[in-house]
Specification:
It contains 2 helices and 9 strands; from the N terminus they run E-E-E-E-E-E-E-E-E-H-H. It has 174 residues and is mostly beta strands. It folds into 2 domains: 128 residues, no CATH class; 37 residues, no CATH class. The chain is elongated, with a radius of gyration of 26 Å. The chain binds zinc ion (2 copies). One zinc ion binds next to loops.
Amino acid sequence: MPARPETVVDLSRLNLSTGEGKRIELPVELAPFELGGQTYLADPTKPQARLEASRHSSGFAFKLTLPVHIEGPCMRCLDPAALDLEVEAREVDQSSAEDAELRSPYVDEDELDIGRWAHDAVMLALPTQILCRPGCLGLCPDCGEPLNDADPAQHEHEKPVDPRWAALDDLKLE
Ligand SMILES: [Zn+2]
Ligand SMILES: [Zn+2]
């Protein structure tokens, strides 16, 4: 398994004094997304993200915006599926705080792990069902063929006869 791509922002290089803010744009490489047993990839894998950072007396506040195009298999029929998302996320890090709730899990010393943050933010923004089309009909439960462009009449399969009834049929023959 390849190493997870890493994109890190050095906060000290933003040179922000208290009360100041800065907006930077940078490409953020996104690792594949695992969802419902399937793998989804961002295309491009390095979308251009916008980071707004502002410095407060107690730490930093961040806002991340990132457009992503995701591709992978439809969760019902496995045909190719794609979706576009405009991901937005916010983080606060109060470096002096003892309380872990006020620390951002993506900030370590002067480094903001924007790659991991962006990955998590996209994960949260993804719908639970990724489909090739709204209301995808999925696969026929009897023969496993895709149902979307199929004639429903071709999938009215004979249901197997309940073995208990089959046994009764045998009895009648005697
Ligand atoms: Zn589908
Ligand atoms: Zn069928």
